[in-house]
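Tokens in:
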């Protein structure tokens, strides 16, 4: 059992203030759920960013839009081009304060423009079904109200913070990744607002993840008259995919998922192009070198086939986030903060990844499931537990107030990360 912590009268008063805002949080969440902000819906993402600028203005901090660098994308027909992103939302408050916190989240969802899942509906008095309700429009409201509560507390001046809310988390944070890294390298600790599970438990250690596209080119030919002149890109891509799949089970905790193969055309043509898309998960950062060497070998084997060329695009986007002493310290503090409001916070390791991986890669210890309690995310059954909006805002507010008062020593956690 975690050490019970005490709250001062002024800290209790800020928690009461959060309770007073609970109805407003729910009303805003219902409005936001109706704004489609699928990762590729630029109009919807910009509309949501406008909403963020509006509500976060209440903190009194400096708000700006951060342009994200385009990344390489490979089209289904194998053309290598650029993928563009809408800007991230950035808020900075007291950048010169002695203690620095990075808070991150995302305003994109997995539901594309035109998806039939486009409105909220109550399942019961406390359970709301809606796109992005838990992942993570509800989480953004939790973060906002924790920060507003901090601003009411007497030690707020000791903390400076950066908030980054990104448009591309659900497609791997390829654009915002470098910005999250920069934030994480400057902050003592990080707080990210992915949903907790419906029972309130958090994600502990996380695997690392990378995405790749292998572009395979061969030679087209008429399948009947000149089959012998053709060089079949799909056959070569398939051999690669089987080789990739065969790597599963060879190293503990490392998995390879062949996700999609594009290419080919009419049955009477030897296909000249194919693209293999796949994901790799690793348990430890040390696994990455083995993965890269394996991919290199398979790519060379593919390219060694007669008349075939192969080029790999992609990389590890989210390194593993193990339960190091520094991350464990953050969890202990979360648990202690929970005791002050009657919560018994638990956590479990997961193969899933999020911005918490990126923060940790920059040496920033963090807890990344500080958002609402929810379930069935990424599906039309996604739910958020509405009473968890004020509950989790209070949890984060206590942590922030204890960082501010020095009872939780954020600088000590960062120092532990350096020694890891
Ligand atoms: Zn999310």
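Residues out:
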């Amino acid at each position: 059992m975690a050490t019970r912590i005490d709250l001062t009268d002024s800290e209790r008063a800020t928690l009461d203030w959060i309770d007073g805002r609970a109805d407003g949080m729910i009303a805003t969440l219902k409005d936001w759920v109706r704004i489609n902000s699928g990762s590729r819906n630029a109009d919807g993402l910009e509309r949501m960013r406008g909403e963020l600028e509006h509500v976060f203005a209440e903190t009194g901090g400096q708000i700006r839009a951060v342009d994200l660098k385009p990344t390489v994308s490979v089209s289904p027909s194998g053309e290598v081009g650029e993928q563009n992103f809408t800007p991230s939302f950035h808020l900075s408050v007291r950048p010169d304060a002695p203690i620095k916190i990075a808070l991150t989240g995302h305003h994109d969802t997995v539901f594309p423009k035109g998806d039939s899942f486009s409105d909220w509906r109550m399942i019961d008095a406390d359970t709301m079904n809606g796109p992005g309700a838990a992942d993570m429009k509800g989480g953004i409201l939790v973060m906002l109200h924790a920060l507003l509560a901090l601003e009411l507390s007497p030690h707020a001046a000791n903390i400076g913070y950066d908030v980054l809310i990104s448009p591309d988390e659900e497609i791997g944070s390829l654009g915002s990744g470098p910005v999250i890294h920069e934030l994480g390298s400057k902050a003592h600790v990080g707080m990210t607002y992915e949903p907790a599970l419906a029972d309130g438990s958090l994600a502990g250690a996380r695997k690392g993840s990378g995405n790749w596209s292998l572009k395979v080119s061969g030679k087209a030919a008429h399948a009947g008259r000149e089959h012998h002149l053709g060089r079949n890109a799909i056959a070569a891509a398939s051999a690669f995919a089987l080789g990739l799949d065969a790597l599963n089970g060879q190293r503990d905790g490392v998995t390879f998922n062949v996700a999609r193969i594009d290419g080919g055309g009419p049955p009477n043509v030897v296909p000249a192009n194919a693209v293999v898309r796949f994901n790799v998960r690793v348990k430890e950062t040390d696994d990455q070198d083995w993965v890269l060497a394996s991919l290199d070998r398979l790519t060379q084997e593919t390219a060694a086939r007669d008349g075939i060329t192969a080029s790999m695009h992609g990389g590890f986007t989210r390194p593993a986030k193990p339960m190091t002493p520094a991350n464990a310290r953050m969890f202990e503090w979360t648990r202690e903060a929970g005791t002050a409001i009657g919560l018994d916070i638990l956590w479990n390791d997961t193969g899933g990844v999020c911005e918490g991986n990126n923060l940790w890669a920059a040496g920033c210890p963090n807890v990344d499931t500080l958002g609402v309690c929810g379930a069935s995310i990424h599906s039309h059954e996604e739910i958020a537990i509405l009473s968890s909006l004020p509950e989790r805002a209070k949890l984060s507010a206590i942590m922030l107030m204890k960082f501010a008062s020095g009872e939780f020593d954020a600088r000590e956690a960062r120092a532990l990360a350096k020694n890891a």
